[in-house]
Structure to design on (170 residues):
């Protein structure tokens, strides 16, 4: 009887989670495809199961059901209704904006881009066109003003494009 018990203990110890030719013991973790952290566990009926415990972002662990901000990006490690684990990335509310010259601006900052375009940094790194600048004066979107005898125009279109020009209305 003792020999039979020893044999079953040997079987329990000798086995574990098998994954891609490797055997992992209870509680042991490993990284899969540089994307997920896996763990081997003994389930309630004495069998072995492999579980995803988190997502990997540049070597940083984001546990399933949690999120972690790294730089300007929020990384979410989600469990879907079908049990599948996925990682998604969103910009943080405080993400900086980057102008056409590569300069970073904080949320709430305004700057003039390409000599005439006034921009505003909004949450999540979104850059908003707020008007034009002509000879140091602000022109709102879709407005015109005569400055020193020259007609200045600031146009903003529904497709998100904008332009500044001088002379007669085009």
């Amino acid at each position: 009887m003792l020999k039979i018990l020893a044999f079953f203990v040997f079987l329990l110890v000798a086995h574990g989670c098998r994954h891609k030719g490797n055997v992992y013991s209870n509680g042991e973790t490993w990284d899969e495809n540089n994307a997920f952290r896996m763990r081997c566990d003994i389930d309630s009926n004495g069998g072995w199961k492999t579980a995803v415990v988190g997502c990997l972002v540049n070597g940083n662990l984001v546990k399933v059901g949690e999120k972690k901000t790294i730089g300007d990006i929020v990384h979410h490690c989600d469990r879907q209704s079908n049990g599948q684990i996925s990682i998604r990335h969103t910009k943080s509310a405080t993400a900086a904006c980057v102008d056409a010259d590569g300069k970073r601006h904080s949320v709430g900052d305004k700057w003039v881009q390409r000599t005439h375009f006034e921009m505003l940094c909004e949450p999540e790194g979104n850059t908003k066109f707020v008007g034009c600048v002509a000879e140091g004066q602000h022109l709102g979107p879709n407005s015109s003003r005569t400055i020193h005898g020259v007609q200045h125009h600031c146009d903003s279109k529904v497709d998100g494009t904008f332009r500044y020009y001088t002379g007669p209305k085009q």
